[in-house]
Write a structure and sequence with these properties.
mainly alpha; RNA-binding
Length: 315
RNA sequence: AAUUAUGGAAUUA
């Protein structure tokens, strides 16, 4: 059974859920008795593939083996329901777990908070955050990040910043994920100076920026039309040994395209291929749109025709 | 003491 767990876990991580399901059914047909742990691996795998109905069915089928879903099973399901916008059902999973006598932990609270916050119910998420603290459940960096991200996505950046400072007061050490989250919030609001302040702060505190950090910074500047700074940051990220990915290039191609600097956009397109970063459907869409708007319709059509040979199907 | 693959947070058209 231990080997099954390791195998299924790695398949789920690689998003090979169909193969995992096949092997799981072999396990069910064998003399080995699956436990809650191995069910959790599968439930989570289905959730990650957005197959929430199957995940729920699998959870329900545990009863036949006299297994009970635990806090982890419920948290996975809650998260999955929320991600597909089924907020009420997600909430009722939280209620149910409490009714069954489980004490929600920081992960269960954060899952619920995240679902509410991303589902446009930020004030409700705030309430949950406060409830959690009252229940002596200490919010960690991920809990703060989720809340800060939700506030930021609503444009409530000063509140987001308040909670960032609050996390430090309460003894949390912001990590690269938290810094990146808040940098994104400020960037999207056009407050690029605040985003830069955070970038400097994290380096003072020896928290290393990663590709997402740079992507968020670059995106903020690009969206504000400050493509020259975006370009500088791109160079800086390469100097710091942080590799640009397809998202980095997409941001730059879109940014330069939107301000009509088509040659620069095209040069990033060349550069990415040179560096082995494979363009995706977003890359092509941005560049085609920019070429079209610049009146280079022929070039746009030609680019469209190369998509298939570059292994990218138009959507 | 730490580690030893089940759940929660961040980026692009």
């Amino acid at each position: 059974l231990g080997n099954f767990k390791i195998l299924l876990g790695s398949l789920v991580k690689d998003e090979k859920i169909d193969l995992a399901l096949k092997i799981f059914s072999e396990l069910q047909g064998s003399s080995l008795v699956p436990d809650t742990f191995v069910y959790n691996v599968m439930v989570n795998g289905l959730v990650k593939s957005n197959r929430i109905d199957e995940a729920c069915k699998l959870m329900d089928s545990m009863k036949q083996l006299n297994l009970s879903p635990d806090l982890i099973t419920y948290s996975s399901i809650l998260d999955g329901l929320g991600k597909v916008g089924r907020l009420e059902e997600a909430f009722s999973v939280f209620t149910k777990l409490a009714e069954e006598g489980y004490e929600p932990d920081v992960v269960a609270y954060t899952s619920l908070m995240d679902v509410l916050g991303k589902g446009g119910k930020v004030n409700h998420a705030l309430t949950i955050f406060r409830t959690m603290a009252k229940k002596k459940c200490v919010p960690d960096v991920v809990a703060y990040s989720s809340l800060i991200d939700s506030l930021g996505k609503e444009g409530r950046v000063e509140e987001a910043y308040y909670f960032f400072e609050d996390s430090k007061r309460k003894g949390c050490t912001p990590n690269v994920g938290l810094y990146s989250t808040l940098i994104d919030s400020f960037g999207k609001k056009g407050m690029v100076d605040r985003a830069l302040d955070l970038y400097e702060e994290m380096q003072r505190k020896e928290c290393l920026p990663n590709t997402v950090t740079f992507n968020n910074l670059i995106s903020g500047f690009a969206k504000a039309g400050k493509v020259n700074v975006a370009e500088k940051l791109f160079e800086e990220m390469e100097h710091k040994g942080c590799f640009p990915d397809v998202v980095t290039y997409n941001i730059l191609i879109d940014g330069f395209g939107k301000v009509g600097m088509i040659e620069e956009a095209e040069s990033y397109f060349k550069d990415m291929k040179l560096k082995g970063v494979v363009p995706d459907v977003i890359t092509f869409t941005s560049l085609i749109e920019s070429l079209g708007k610049a009146g280079k319709v022929m070039n746009a059509c030609e680019l469209f025709d190369t998509m298939e040979e570059e292994g990218c199907s138009p959507n």
